[in-house]
Amino acid sequence: MATKHSQNIDATFGIYHDLTIDVTPEKLFTAIAQPEHLINWWPKKCQGNPALGSQYNFFFSPEYNWFGEVVKFDVNKSFHIKMTKSDVDWDPTTFGFEIREEKGKSVLQFTHLNWKERNSHFRIASFCWAMLLKGLKDYVEKGIILPFEERS
Asked: Are 99 and 25 in contact (CB under 8 A)?
């Protein structure tokens, strides 16, 4: 018997990246949650306090001066931010990091969820997150800081 499939008009899309990083969960968590470390692999400037409900400011340029709220927080395990003031594509989204230890290393599961469509901005963001997460890995494992102007 054939069934009818309905289109979910409320569907959202997500970006997913998993990687293993050869550092402790504590060191990795510090690099993703502390503004003074975030600036070494993602925004040009950053302010915020790693605590549930805290506001973060991610400054890339005067035109890209974005804000988000910490919506999930578990020290050394989980850190998620809901964008609150960015652009029309990013504002409904939440990005986050889940960390677990495995054989003395950290397994990082990154998500960037609730994109309304898979438009060019979504596709660019997916690529950029992959490159930025490689920068995060190089930063925490090797101490390499890619200059802001060279980050994707």
From this structure: yes
